[in-house]
Design brief:
single chain, mainly alpha, 12 helices
């Protein structure tokens, strides 16, 4: 048990160092959501003046901030999961597999690193959104309770995304194909999650799709915790938190079960 924990810690340290050295990846995964927050938020707020009941008299930039926190997790999980392919191409995975540790221990260490990296980057965007003067977050549970809820949602979201990435990696053998499938799957789901527009005024068919969409639940939980001043128009944490936890558990268990095939 101790040796397995040491192996996971070593893999975590290795991945953190790799991200720290790849500054372009680190900066782009944080700056791109902030750029969308500034440009899209200001453009819609001042140019289109959205009038959804859930927005009320609020600024669209405030509404957009939780979605950008979730987007950071999506970017981070996609970039981090690509390390499987880099290590397989360079032969590093083969070197790891001949160690005394099981394939699932190695896999868990790499997933742990991806979850930590994605969560830290999402929290960085949360902190920046909280301190930017033009963004007004409501913090329904108070700033401490709201921040704790957002961090828990971000960690759970990263677990779900990395479990999904493992499942895709068992089927797709090239890094280019992996990125294509991840983008093809995640970005339409993200646009339909309520991150870019409120779902309370959407057509019934679109709302039905959003309830099936797994990304709706982390986005709404983050919105409820740090942006919304009330629960009107939102599902609420009594629904979103259990559904998100169940999805994350299902994805990571399936990913760890099927994942050893991705190491070969």
């Amino acid at each position: 048990m101790t040796s397995s924990l040491s192996a996971c810690a070593a893999l975590l340290q290795r991945e953190l160092r790799a991200v720290a050295r790849s500054r372009s990846q680190l900066y782009s995964s944080i700056l791109f959501p902030l750029m969308l927050l500034a440009l899209l938020g200001a453009g819609v707020s001042d140019g289109l003046q959205p009038s959804s009941p859930i927005l009320g008299a609020g600024d669209y930039t405030d509404f957009l901030a939780p979605g950008m926190i979730a987007m950071t997790a999506i970017f981070a999980s996609t970039f981090s999961s690509a390390s499987f392919y880099r290590d397989r191409e360079t032969g590093m995975l083969q070197a790891l597999l001949v160690s005394p540790h099981s394939a699932r221990t190695i896999l868990f260490g790499k997933v742990l690193a991806a979850v930590v990296i994605g969560s830290l980057q999402s929290v960085a965007v949360l902190i920046l959104a909280a301190v930017i003067p033009g963004i007004d977050l409501a913090w329904q549970f108070g700033w401490l309770g709201g921040a704790a809820t957002v961090i828990a949602a971000v960690i759970t979201l990263n677990i779900m995304l990395n479990g999904l990435a493992l499942l895709i990696a068992t089927r797709v053998r090239t890094m280019q194909g992996f990125h294509l499938i991840m983008n093809l799957a995640l970005f339409p789901l993200f646009f339909l999650s309520g991150a870019f527009f409120p779902l309370d005024g959407a057509p019934d068919w679109l709302r039905i799709i959003s309830y099936i969409n797994p990304l709706t639940y982390p986005v709404e939980l983050i919105q409820y915790a740090c942006w919304a001043s009330s629960g009107d128009g939102l599902l609420g944490p009594a629904i979103t938190a259990p559904v998100l936890a169940a999805l994350a558990l299902l994805c990571i268990l399936l990913g760890l079960r099927r994942g050893p095939a991705a190491l070969r």
